[in-house]
Amino acid sequence: MSETRRKIMRVLDGETLSPPPIWLMRQAGRYLPEYRETRAKAGSFLDLCYSPEHAVEVTMQPIRRYGFDAAILFSDILVIPDAMKRNVRFTEGHGPEMDPIDEAGISRLAADGVIDYLKPVFETVRRLRTELPEETTLLGFCGAPWTVATYMIAGHGTPDQAPARLFAYQHPKAFERLLMLLADISAEYLVAQIDAGADAVQIFDSWAGVLGEKEFEAFAVKPIARIIARVKAQRPKARVIAFAKGAGYLLKTYRQKTDADAIGLDWSVPLEFAAELQKEGPVQGNLDPMRVVAGGRALEEGIDDIMMHLGGGPLIFNLGHGITPQADPENVRLLVKRVRRGGN
Ligand code: CP3
């Protein structure tokens, strides 16, 4: 299948494609009326994640509409704490909530049964591979240990993850145990997604940007390096995209230290710095999702700047973070069209 290798896989191996392949973080979501319809039918958000029938349907929706070069498994990073019996809930207008964990709770945590609990997710991946067009890359994913831990400690989302940062200083041993346990479970979870048919996987470290330099090394770099080493030891052909949102200058050594095949960039990464990072390997990103909401010149200029700075190297065109519910689906169509035309 060498001549028909999927475009995103080729970029992950260092090829420059013109135009670059494109997919969008959170491409299946509330900005699409058909998502809202399936979501209403499925019941709760977690029911949607654990129903292979509905999860396949919402994963396929943006592929049918826009023909993206990758589909991303529909699930959530918080299915791991859910499988660890942390009582995860998604209530309308509240964001995710779960039982907050303390030092004693961490000492009792175990990996037992977690992968088994997540079997519906692997069934979704298997069905997706048979339904997707041959040329579409199928991405699996998980949350980074740090980002997942921030929700486990606070019990909900917070603006700056102060509870997890404080806990890490006060209980370094317990915190280290939590991160390493999450890393080992995540590696096993990703291997199972790959075995079910995922071509590549992305690790989302959405809260990497609140960490100081030393903490970034210990809580973001180290666990991700551990996950990637484990995944690649077991599945040498697997490709991994690591997205550390807000990491800025610390991205300079992130690829080399984690062994990620591509690094995801948020929109605050200056394009000249992004081009420097691209000399070392593939990058993914980094359009501000608000440009997709704004549309018009803001959208066009954002696309053209990225294409100008990064289009000459290995690039997977994406947003710098997930698409938001207020985005107009028509703007997404214009975005895909413009990228495929190679910018203006
Ligand atoms: O990208 C995709 O289309 C795949 C699906 C996906 C979802 N969440 C679906 C979702 C992926 C890859 C995620 C990752 C995720 N989940 C992250 C990392 C990436 C990021 O956005 O920072 C994080 C931090 C979470 C945790 C999470 N899940 C939060 C904070 C929320 C609530 C915020 C919100 O947007 O409502 C969710 C819920 C969630 N996950 C929704 C979707 C489509 C919306 C819930 C709904 O439909 O009611």
Explain the overall architecture:
By secondary structure, this protein is α/β, with parallel strands linked by helices. The protein has a single domain (3-340), classed as Alpha-Beta Barrel (TIM Barrel). Helix content is 52%, strand content 12%. The chain is built from 17 helices and nine strands. The protein has helices at residues 7-12, 33-42, 45-50, 52-66, 79-83, 103-108, 114-117, 119-131, 145-154, 162-170, 172-196, 213-234, 254-258, 271-279, 289-294, 296-310, 329-340; strands spanning 70-72, 89-91, 95-97, 137-143, 200-205, 239-244, 262-265, 283-287, 315-319. The strands form two sheets. It has a seven-stranded parallel beta sheet. Helix 13 links the parallel strand 6 and strand 7. The site of coproporphyrinogen III has 23 residues, from strand 3 and strand 4.
